[in-house]
Amino acid sequence: MNKIYTIYKKLYETYGAQGWWPFINYDGVNRAKKGVNRGYHVLDYTFPRNSDEVFEVCTGSILTQNTTFSSVVKSLENLNSKKSLTANGIESMDIQELKTAIKPSGYYNQKAEYILEFIKFYKGLNGAIPTREELLNIKGIGEETADSILLYGYNQLQFKVDAYTKRVLTELGLIDKKAKYHEIKLLMESSLKEAVEDKKDLLVIYQEYHALIVNHAKEFYSKKPYGQGCFLKDI
DNA sequence: AACCAGGACGTGA
DNA sequence: TCACGTCATGGT
């Protein structure tokens, strides 16, 4: 039991399952929580359920770059209300209409271009699972976005590292502040693979872990000085 | 009223 | 390779 897995268990004990990635069109068992947790699917790991939901994760992953997810939801709902939250739907939109729809998420000029670039690639897949290298070759998709797409859109065993992950690990002294993305990703993946007995649990752990870190970091690592009152410090 | 958010790219050194 | 500027709206 290494520290990375210990942190996961503490976070899970504290916050419970997160139901990440949330879906705009979700109408499943947690619908009762609408208004509060609308779109989340806590303890239901049967997602994405179809190609439209895969595409929703991909688009959301691009839109969420350096932006809060709540603003991404606005953009996704704008697209969805135009019945355009699909590859063909977006592709058939007027470019200005697309930009206006995703405006709430910021960087709308770039992101519109990125989404269209992705769509060209996505349609060529014909439902196949993309490789990480293929995703990284697409303009607008860097390491985190690629891992986000693979982990949540395609249920692939790829840990998603974000700014919060790096910040928390740095503050806890588990990694150097100059550590690069790949270094952090490797630490997370190797630690979890080593500590988790049943390997088929890893996917859910990867998915929950990222969401748990975000949830925790929003409370304890969003304002300086970082880590005030963080219960992870005593490990 | 600054400050920064669940990044990625282009550039110059 | 690396540091830095740029992209932009929205919440605090």
Q: What is the assembly state of the chains in this entry?
A: single chain
Helix and strand succession?
HHHHHHHHHHH
Low-confidence parts lasting 5 or more residues at pLDDT below 50?
A: 28-36
Question: Would you tell me the overall average pLDDT?
Answer: 93
What does the overall shape look like?
A: globular
Structural class: mainly alpha
Euclidean distance between termini CA atoms: 12 Å
Rg over CA atoms, rounded to whole Å, is: 18 Å
Proportion of helical residues = 40-55%
How many strands? 0
Largest sheet: none
Number of helices: 11
Please summarize what this structure is:
This protein has 235 residues and is an all-alpha fold. The chain has helices at residues 3-15, 51-63, 69-81, 87-91, 95-102, 108-125, 132-136, 143-153, 163-171, 181-195, 202-220.
Defining traits:
11 helices; 235 residues; DNA-binding; mainly alpha; globular
Explain this structure.
With 235 residues, this protein is mainly alpha-helical. The chain has eleven helices and no strands. The longest helix has 19 residues, at 202-220. The protein is globular and about 55 Å long. The chain starts with a helix and ends in a 15-residue tail after the last helix. It binds a DNA duplex (13 and 12 nucleotides) through α3, α6, α8, α9 and α11.
Set down the secondary structure blueprint.
Layout: H1 3-15, H2 51-63, H3 69-81, H4 87-91, H5 95-102, H6 108-125, H7 132-136, H8 143-153, H9 163-171, H10 181-195, H11 202-220
Helix pairs in contact: 1-11, 2-3, 2-6, 2-8, 5-6, 9-11
The protein binds a DNA duplex (13 and 12 nucleotides) through α3, α6, α8, α9 and α11.
